[in-house]
């Protein structure tokens, strides 16, 4: 939750957090959608994808962190997993775009005299 003094979220930050929320949980791998846990308020690009239980549940980050200990993961590792999954999606999208371009037949170049 944002405080009243927090800067407004930009469109790119909002889009990024939407991507994070579309990932599975970075602690227990529960299916998406996830919640975006901010390690530091206002740092949207370091948000971690967490299911409700791993985020706000009794054993979650804002609880006693039992689930985190059971899965043997810390915030840095969870952030790395979130970023890795986002990077993997970007690479898959880039490969898809590249393969679509490479399967197109080249258009004829018409030269004017």
Protein model, in words:
It is built from four helices and two strands; from the N terminus they run H-E-E-H-H-H. It starts with 10 loop residues before the first helix and ends in a 10-residue tail after the last helix. The longest helix has 29 residues, at 75-103. 44% of the residues lie in helices and 5% in strands. It has helices at residues 11-21, 52-55, 66-71, 75-103, and strands at 35-37, 48-50. With 113 residues, the chain is mainly alpha-helical. The protein has a domain at 11-85. A two-stranded antiparallel sheet has the order 1-2. The chain is globular and about 75 Å long.
Q: In a nutshell, what does this entry contain?
A:
This protein has 113 residues and is mostly helical. Helix content is 44%, strand content 5%. The model has no long low-confidence stretch (mean pLDDT 84).
Topology summary:
Layout: H1 11-21, E1 35-37, E2 48-50, H2 52-55, H3 66-71, H4 75-103
Antiparallel strand pairs: 1-2
Keyword list:
mainly alpha, 2 strands, 113 residues, two-stranded antiparallel ribbon
């Amino acid at each position: 939750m944002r405080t009243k003094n927090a800067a407004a979220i930009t469109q790119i930050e909002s889009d990024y957090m939407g991507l994070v929320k579309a990932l599975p949980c970075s602690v227990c791998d529960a299916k998406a959608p996830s919640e975006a846990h901010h390690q530091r308020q206002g740092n949207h690009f370091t948000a971690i994808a967490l299911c409700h239980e791993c985020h706000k549940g009794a054993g979650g980050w804002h609880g006693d962190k039992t689930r985190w200990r059971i899965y043997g993961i810390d915030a840095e590792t969870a952030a790395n997993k979130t970023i890795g999954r986002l990077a993997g999606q970007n690479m898959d999208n880039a490969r898809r775009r590249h393969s679509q371009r490479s399967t197109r037949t080249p258009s004829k170049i018409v030269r004017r005299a």
